Amino acid sequence: xxxxxxxxQPEISTCDPVWNAVQRDAETMRLEEPALSSLLQENVLxxxxxxxxxxxxxxxxxxxxxxxxxxxRESFSQILYEAPEIGEKAxxxxxxxxxxxxxxxxxxxxxxxxxxxxxxxxxxIAHSLWTNGRKPFAQFLQMRxxxxxALDIHPGARIGKGIMIDxxxxxxxxxxxxxxxxxxxxxxxxxxxTGKEDGDRHPKIGDGVLIGAGASILGNIRVGNCSRVGAGxxxxxxxxxxxxxxxxxxxxxxxxGCAHPSQSMDHTLAFDSGAWFDAGGGI
Length: 283
Description:
41% of the residues lie in helices and 13% in strands.
């Protein structure tokens, strides 16, 4: 167990509400559950910044004998220092999870316990490596993320901020996929290729999109801003903004139902028998 760091708190702490909330939650959790004191000290209370905590937690989860935890932690800390946008996006992701996932009741839970959040942050580090020409290290992280967290996110994928991946098991995001801001993705979602294309071959997901569990969006197609993709759907064509698509293959079955579907997390479909049967549904 490491000892608390004694140097002055960095300047960012005075204007970093997410980190401050995580620290408060850690203190409360330590009082309520002393058995977790070492975990909290190692990952939060003994770390001077949010970035330091993030680097420590990811390194603790992904290290192997060939890549020691301390070495990974040092590498991740350097990457987070050189690419401050990673920390900014991670903060937005924590807020998104806290606001959208009813299972999340504190700001510290994603950092300690939610594998989809951790996989996403690790993939952000891998993306930085990928775009800076360090592709073997990026691919090592992709492999470890898939092994440990059961999400396969290619380091070439570009992912915005305020992302909530719920549960996360089985999520696959391809190399040329683009995910906008404020997107919510449930488990088993594939943003993949059709197998017939080379080059730019993966979906482009707009801002504010909600993608239901088990949905597959395939090919270099766009899902417009603030649209919804129904659970289990297979999307092969472009989706206009503010629409709901469902079925196999997916078709438009109505409007999105609200201005911000990724935030409302409302998966219900207004029943329109004609549209539903046209989309491949039925009893």
